[in-house]
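User: Some background: our group keeps a shared notebook of sequences we're curious about, and every so often someone picks one and asks for a predicted structure to add to the entry. Today it's my turn. The entry only has the sequence so far, pasted here. Could you supply the structure so I can complete it?
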Amino acid sequence: MEGERGTSASGSEDEIVSIFAEFLTRVVKLEDLANLARTFLIGFQQGLEFLRRPPIDTSSQLVQNLIKENETKRMKAYVSRGCINSHDSVQKLTELNTCSQGLQSHLKQARRLLDELESLMDDASSVVLALIGTSSDSCHLELEQGSEPLLAAASVGRKTASAFVKLDAPKYGSLMAVIHGMVKQDFVMQEKIVSSLNLKAPASALETYCLMWSLRPCRWCNRPAVTSRDQVESPRNGKVDM
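Assistant: Of course. Here's the predicted structure to add to the notebook entry:
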């Protein structure tokens, strides 16, 4: 009987490690998506700035002389449009549309990954309940406010990857809750930024959006300790491929 319990417990431990590995793999995918989406945001900002370029200041005598010496209908039209060719304008508008669609696509993919993270958290919760035999009310995967040890664990680098798999099963769940909370807040920020983008967005706001997207203050300062290219030592089987 004790042997059966031991086998069941070891199976549950292996399962929670596997779930945790899948969870981190999706977190890494979210980060990669965010980095790609940042290029779309910067492209939107640069395209809009190009279209907003003010006309040449013709108050300068030198500029007036240059225009007068090369004065043609095309030159007048070119200067009046702010030295932007109609072809350039069409191209930039197309780029703006592409960047906007890219950002919307990013939100859809990120939202799907977040749903998968929540599903994995539910799976982990079920494993923990089976492992320690408590009710769902006492073992729900939520992080209590002021849990300094777990917050510290979430901010560590790659060298502590092996320490993750040595956690108790409930602590795996708590750590997943910490990570999920961070990436969820990051996603909410990205949603607000994308919904605020339009052709009338102030230049200062766009600059702030790009800065916030790069800094991503809602996430931890380091990349997740385990990536899809890493292998984590399992307590029993040696390694867990991610």
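Suggested note for the entry: Confidence is low (pLDDT under 50) at residues 1-7, 134-166, 221-242. DSSP finds eight helices and two strands in the chain.
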